[in-house]
Structures are given as C-alpha cells and as structure tokens.
Write a structure and sequence with these properties.
mainly alpha, two-stranded antiparallel sheet, two-stranded antiparallel ribbon, 6 strands
C-alpha cells in the first residue's frame, strides 16, 4: 500500500468511526455532506488536473499505487473526498462539544490575516499560478463569508483552524518532512517559497478555499432539509 494511500486511510478511519458518537451522530448528516463534497471536489479536480498537466505540481510515483484518473493518482482523487469529510466532521464535533464558545474575535482576526496576507501574495506574485489562484480565491471566499454574515461562517473558521493541526502532519509528510523525496512536489516558478516546515504557504489558502465552501454548502443542504432559514 502506498504512503499517500496510508495517509488518506489513517485520516479517514478515526473520523469515520467517531461519526457514530451519540453526541455528534455525524453519520446522520452524510446525505447533506455528499452533494456538497461532489460539487466542490469536481471543480478542484479540474483545477488539479490542469496544474498537474502544466507541471505546476506533480506526484512522486515511488509513493503511489500507480492507479490514475487522467493525470491524477487515485490517492489525490481520494484526497478531495476524505479530507473534506474529516474537516466537516471536526466542524460538527466542535458544535456538539463547544456550543457556546465565542468566535467573533477569532473569526475577525483569521479573516483579516487571510485577506491581508492573501492579497499581498497574490498581487506581488502575479506570474505564480499557484500563489495567485489559491490566495485570490481564499480572499474572495472570506469577503463573501464576512459580508453575508452567515451563521455557519465563524464555525467554519473555527473548524478550519482546529484542522490545521492534523493538516500539518498529513501535508508535512506529503511534502517531504519524513521522506527522502516529497510525495507531492511543486514548481519553484509558481510558489513564493515560503514554507511551513516543508509545506508551501499556498497550501493553507488552497485548503481554505476547498473546505469553507463545502461547509457552507453542507449547512445549506442541512438547513433546507430541516426547514430552517438558510443564512
């Protein structure tokens, strides 16, 4: 079994098993999560395929199963379904176990950092495709979330911040912190070179751009099903 696949299964396993926790009962909400993931994952798979074809990033075959969908290894395809599952699970766990936590200040600070840092990186690296696209999209999503004053947005920010801890482990391994060569490599021409350990800083904006919309769509489908005002 490939290293990348092991990482995906190790991420998914605990979250799936804990989905049956009585207080969270996340398994009951899978029907709302599936369409949300598919809608966002489809767009990101197209993005991923385009960048892979143009060698903006790529994958080391030494750490893969060797099964591909287009130019993407099957492990990479699974990434867009497993990681969102885990993040939305964290979102629901935090709601269940920390229902009264105040998130106003945290949301404002996190959103401001993303907007300021993302805008600066995007505008100063217009030729870096990964930097420009990931940072610009993250900034747009923050502006959309803050202006809309969506009730789910602060909780989504909270979940994203908590998810950064396992993210550092999984993405750190994928980018070479524990292996002679990285599982996923990036063209030096399309990143700024700022790294969190071995992780390009653009990955933070990329994951934010993927996970926040999924949580928003998940909340939309869930609220509509239960006849709750969607906001």
């Amino acid at each position: 079994m490939s290293l990348y696949l092991i990482l995906m299964l190790a991420s998914f396993g605990p979250c799936f098993l804990l989905s049956f926790d009585k207080k969270v009962a996340f398994y009951k909400n899978i029907r709302f999560l599936v369409p949300a993931i598919f809608m966002v994952a489809t767009a990101f798979l197209v993005w991923d395929e385009f960048f892979t074809i143009h060698a903006i990033w790529g994958f080391n075959p030494d750490y893969l199963q060797g099964i591909y969908l287009g130019s993407l290894p099957i492990e990479e395809v699974l990434f867009f379904f497993i990681i969102p599952y885990c993040c939305v699970f964290i979102y629901e766990v935090l709601i269940a176990y920390f229902p009264n936590v105040s998130l106003q200040t945290t949301t404002k600070i996190a959103s401001l950092i993303i907007v300021l840092f993302g805008t600066t990186l995007a505008l100063t690296h217009l030729d870096n495709w990964y930097t420009l696209s990931a940072c610009a999209l993250a900034v747009i999503i923050v502006v959309f979330g803050m202006q809309g004053k969506y009730i789910w947005y602060p909780r989504a920010i909270f979940a994203f911040l908590v998810a950064q801890f396992p993210f550092l482990i999984v993405n750190g391994i994928l980018t070479g912190i524990a292996t002679p060569e990285p599982v996923v490599w990036y063209s030096a021409y399309h990143i700024v070179g700022i790294r969190i350990f071995t992780i390009p800083v653009e990955d933070v904006f990329y994951n934010f751009s993927m996970l926040i919309p999924i949580i928003g769509l998940y909340h939309f489908f869930k609220a509509r099903y239960h006849g709750i005002e969607v906001k």
